[in-house]
């Protein structure tokens, strides 16, 4: 499969932060390609730039050099409105903390992003129920987040990230705030769903055991991506 058909392609990505002490170069030419259905672990010490890389790949920030190509579109050539549309329709995000809307049920949290994208309420609810059921939450879909366990809340957050059938999933320590047993179960469900839906996933983690379950491990070293 050619790089041009890849859901996510990063080329020569650079990011420099300007501080009172001078310039801090965090990313110094990152090259990375993710294919459909591929799950890649991103491993690096704290402060090495994992979150910065995910923000650039997810079009939440703009690089100081290089390119981010999502589903064949070079994001550097797009307007802010076009970048927002790609984030909504093509990229899913999962964070360490679930960030669910507390006043909405689990089902409604997964329905809302679909309706914002233009899906009908009926179709959105149907997909939301399917996703929640795949994460073992069929009986909990009508509960507010405050009535769910930490693991259940994170399962809802993952279902929400997959709601609009993204081509790319970006996850920043998605099980980092869960106990070991719960994290393992949530992670297995995440991997199974990503593979079933043929999503290209980049998952930042400190957990070596979780990283070993993925298809490939890459590391951030001196501002560049190297094979793990």
Keywords:
228 residues; 7 helices; single chain; 34% helix; alpha/beta
Please describe what this structure looks like:
It is globular and about 50 Å long. It starts with 7 loop residues before the first strand and ends with a strand. With 228 residues, the protein is an alpha/beta fold. The strands form two sheets. Strands 6-7-8-3-9-10 form a six-stranded mixed beta sheet. It has helices at 50-57, 80-89, 106-116, 121-134, 150-161, 180-196, 208-212; strands at residues 8-19, 22-34, 39-43, 65-70, 73-74, 91-94, 168-172, 200-204, 216-221, 224-227. It contains seven helices and ten strands. A hairpin with a 2-residue loop joins β9 (216-221) and β10.
